[in-house]
Every structure is written in structure tokens, then in C-alpha cells.
Amino acid sequence: MLRTTTFIAVGLAGCVWTQAATAADPVYARSLAATCFTCHGTDGRSVDGVPPSLAGQNRDYLLKQMQEFRDGKRPATIMHQHAKGYTDEQLALIAGYFASVTPGRAAAAPAAR
Amino acid sequence: MTFSRREFIKWASAGAGVATLAGCATAGSGSAGRVVVIGGGYGGATAAKFIKLWAPDIDVTLVEPNEYFVSCPISNLVVGGNAQMSQITFSYDGLRSRGIRVIRDTAVAIDAEKRQVALAGGQTLPYDRAVVSPGIEFMFDQIPGLKSADAQSRILHAWKAGPQTVALRKQLESMRDGGVYALQIPMAPYRCPPGPYERVCQVADYLKKAKPKSKILVLDSNPDLVSKKGLFLAAWNGLYKGMIEYRPNSEIADVDVKGMTVKLQFDDVKADVINVVPAQRAADIAVRSGLITANNRWCGVDWTTCESTAVKGVHVLGDATLAAPAMPKSGSMANQHAKVCAAGVIALLKGQPVNTDTMMMNTCYSFVSGNSAMHVASVHRYDPAQKTLVTVKDSGGVSSAASEIEGAYAWGWARNIWAEALA
What we know:
The structure holds two protein chains of two kinds. Chain A is an all-alpha fold.
């Protein structure tokens, strides 16, 4: 945990130079996380838990999983390909967003009457 | 931007009528603006939901001619007998319960000067920002024999999910064992790049079980499979060995409905069931509103907000857009457009800064059988120098092989993206 945190801090320091305006903006974090909603559900609340809900997960845990997917340390069908598309700073913002959401499952799209 | 007094007076003095005034009175109380969304598919329904979710003080109206949302993704499984229409058909009640006004009508014109949308039913909807997610129209004029409604009822596209999905299924059920199913694929870009090849798998899955002497003929206008080539060929040469003949560079010239013949440039091909997916362009409302900017077919947009490059105050989403490099025309992509657009519309209406570090990702699953699927994925980031989205280096890719676990993920994707749009 300590090592991960240090790593994030270094990653953030590296990015702050170019992304200061956006990194401080909660709307930016939400926009990044919204790219994940498509498969994982709005705000990370998955309708039936497949793929898993991200809402309310621990921030450091989420970040570590995404980094391990990216680095090939955790096997995946698709997540390694997605995780490689984001910077460390972006992954940290995504993890922070989902950690801040109240956990739960989303309602399914309503059937035709 | 708030709903200004000046705006109200402009409308009132223009004699916009009682209905409009009543609408303004409702919108006026604390509204941060009025957004009219045209088209309730993957792009429009999702945009309507997210504008309301992220800015409840904005009035959102969704205009959609169909009573129900019918999903194109998974509809190939209905063709193959591996899913039912009831599993891909949804109501707009979830959006209504969020406070979105859903009007069942067709938008016929956008007046960008007066900022109003005219509906076929005669109603006029004023807007501060319009979102147009019209989907595609087929270019039937390129295939003379398919111009008539009668011809179109016999040689189906089934490329908009709905009655044609059911009709194609019935044609396959009626086909004799030993018959030929021919699928003609248009030149890219078209809606859902892997869709035709998935359909071939689904039809093969059905024919293998029910009519094993039958054959499938794939007439592809393109020089090669457009998407997931290795994965589809693995299914065709494995699960469905000997059933499928693939003919590249097979552009359609015409059809003969009576003779059930596809006329290619140098060849005529007869089949028992002919399924032609015609070339496509942005739907009519985009044409009539001056939103088309490329090849008389697609709508150019600023990818940081999805605002039209041709008409200010109007945003365009989904398959109707001129795609950024390596961006597919997919439900997944329309869902991503919608959320970028929602954030952009809110920022512009409220005078807040627009996020220019736009990210989008794409995930498309294809089923090779009733339960086994594979994916293609990509991640796109806005490049200010090129002023478009570009794929992030080393990101994205395809499955190593089709699998049942990805079949489960594909259904999970579907349930979540449907809820994104409609719940």
C-alpha cells in the first residue's frame, strides 16, 4: 500500500505540470470514469454484477488492479487493453471517482410494456 | 446560460403561440436552459439521461418516433434464434421518470437561427442547445431494384433492429434445407464493422443445427474482412467448416427480386434468402439541417463537445458523425459520444470551461455461436494539434480467442449499456 501510494505521488507530480487545470477539476475525473460506465454501469453500478461494480471500491485497490492489468501482472480478457489507454494520473482519478460513489446495483433498462 | 428574458421576449413577440409560451413558463422557473435531443437510440437516449443526471436544472426533451428502443447489438442473436425480441426491446419510461420529456414524433427541421425544432406533428420546440443523434439512412438509390417498398420487404437489410430482424428470422426458418443464404456487405464505413461477420456466424449456427445441407455466401464489397478477421475466420473454418464461402471485392450493382439474384459487377449470384445491407449516410434530419460536411454522408463535429462544425448550437452523435481515425460506428462509441456531449452541453449552457482532454473508449463484442463471444477494444484521446481523437499508442486490441466467459461479458455489456441509455 505504501509503495503504491508513493508511486501515485510520483506519477501525479510528473503530470501536474501539463494537466494542472484538469486534474483539479472533479468534472474531469467524472468524464474519465464515464468512459468505464459503458461496461461497468452508470457510476460503476453494474446491473447484474457482470462485469463487476466499481462503485464504492477502495481507491488504492482499484488503482492497483488497473496498473496490474496494464502491466500484464493480472490476467484479463480485455482490461489490459483498456488500462494501457490511460496515464497513471488518469487511472488515479478514475479510481478516486469510483471510490467516492455509494455502492449499489443499477436498475435494468425497463422492458417494453 | 440561463433562460433569458430577452429570449422570452423574442419568442413572445415572434408570436410563437400559446404552446410555446406555456413551455417557456414551465422552463423559466429555475431552468438553466432547454435542450432538445433528436433521436432516442444509443446516442440520444444516453445524452438525454446524462444531461439530466449531471444537471437536473436543465430542461431536457427527447424526440423519438418509435414507441420502443430496439437494440441493434444482440439483434443478430435473434436472427440466429439465440435470443428473443423481448430481450432487446425497452421502453422510455426510465427516462420519463427522470423528468425527461419524451415526445413520440419525428423532427423534420432545425432552425438554427431561431433555435427551434419543428416536428412532423406540427409542434415547435425551442432550444438553447440541440443534440441530434439521428442514426443512419440507407442509400437505396444506389441499388435500383431495391427502390420499391415491395422489393425492400423481400430483400431485407435487418440493419436497424425491429420488424426486419423478425422478418429475416422468418425467411431463414422458411428456407429449404440445402438452400443458400447470401449476405451482401457495403463498403466501409458502415454501422457496426464486425456486425456482418457476426451475422454470418449466427445464421451458420442456426443452419448447422436446423438445415445442415445449406450454404452461406458472403458477398463483401470490401477487399477483406473489415473487423476481427482472424477471430471470425477461426469460427468459419472451425465451428462452421465447409458452410461458408467468402467473396471479397463483391460490390453490388443491382438486385433482381423476382429472380432472387444479386447482380455484381461481373457476376450474377442466385440465393434462396438474400440479405443486402446497403451503403449508409447520416439520416434525413441531418441532411435537411445542413449538418452534413463530408462526402454528402457524414456530420463533422468538434470532438471535445460533439458540437457540429457546420451549425453552431447543434451537437451530433453516433453513427451519423464523421468518425475520427479508427473510430467505429458502434453503440459503444455512441454511448461515449453522448457523455462527452452531455458534459459539453452543460458546460456551455452554464458558462463553465469545457474539458478539452477528451477520452473515449470502444468495446464491441461479437457472438460466434449462442454463447461464445469475442471483443475488439480501443481507447481514444483528443489531440489538440490534430484537432481530433486519436487512438492511444499500445492500447486496445482483440480477444485471443472467442470464449464463453466473453459471452457472459457481452451480455453484461449489453445490460449495462442499455441501463446507461434508458434506466
